[in-house]
Amino acid sequence: MLSRDTIDTRQVPAAERFGLWLDMVARTSVPLRIRTEHAHDFAAWAEVTELGPIRLLRYEYPSLDAQRNELLVRRSDPEHYLLALTIRGNSSLSQAGRYNAISAGEFTFYDTSRPHEVCHHGIGDDAASSIVALIPYSAVPLSQDRLVPLFAGRMSGSEGIGALLAQYLVQLTSHPEQYHDADASRLGGVGLDLVTTMLGRHLVAEDAVPTEVRRRALLAQVQSYIHQHLGDATLSPQVVADAHHISVRSLHRLFEAEQSTVAAYIRGLRLERCRRDLADPALHSRPIATIAARWGFADKAHFSRAFRAAHDTTPQDWRRRQSDSSRIVNRRASTVNPVRAD
């Protein structure tokens, strides 16, 4: 599981909550002057996850208005960019003479080494929520001068690369138990590639993004598409290529560095999903052909051959062995902890 630091102001008395939040922000992000109408009882939480070059912060709070002026910049200049995805609530940002109101599902981007003002308020009884990526200058292969037009801008988190990046950030911060600490740097690298590609596209200067960064970002987009359409029996390299407006040949080149063909990648994912479902006691009564069809194997005989080739056993034998193992475990548990009738 990815390690993370959690700060929950509700663990301390109401009078101390806002002070705890100010300390956390200064320690994990950049010093800010923060005001709120809820200073008397600032019920909020934050989770901080380190992903190699990127620090992810997921916030939830009632409302806040923050300012970083020239004095605070001179006192502490970490030389980071900040990319923020608004999850809930209404937010706004001003920097470099530009102002924008940001709605839920949109990104904004700014430079922490320049003065700026940020506001983010919940709506009604719903708290404000956001995911923030703090990124060092040195990790972004685009010059600062070229990025200035994007400061305090709005970028969609519901289409294209922005949608993929938003899904990626939400998944990582919502389900850290699905990942390992050893993967943190690589996960951060994938996120950084997506961020860089999104910024490049909004600059209408994708050529400024290094070729390898564009390749990895496109690969992540293609793999995400495949995951979402595994159950479609018509999913094929041609379908995947058409969905991303590239040729099948370009798609195959994209996978060359992955030591797998596109078809093998799709088949491997489908077989893994089938293997997982066949081992699930809750699905024991579901026919094997139904499970196979759920994950895109329309022909039962073809599925059986593919499963045997991948796992050196038939689907029936795999399911039976998992069922037997589950019964043995349950029997041992009942023996160790017998239920007594009073």
Automatic annotation (TrEMBL):
Pfam families found in the cross-reference section: AraC_binding_2, HTH_18
State the residue spans of region: Disordered: 311-342
Residue intervals of the HTH araC/xylS-type domain: 220-321
Instruction: Provide the alphabetized UniProt keywords.
Output: DNA-binding, Transcription, Transcription regulation
Please provide, alphabetically and separated by semicolons, the GO molecular function terms listed in this UniProt record. Answer: DNA-binding transcription factor activity; sequence-specific DNA binding
InterPro entries this protein is in? AraC-bd_2, AraC_XylS_family_regulators, Homeodomain-like_sf, HTH_AraC
Which ranges are annotated Polar residues under compositional bias? Answer: 332-342
Protein name per the record: AraC-binding-like domain-containing protein
The source organism is Micromonospora yangpuensis
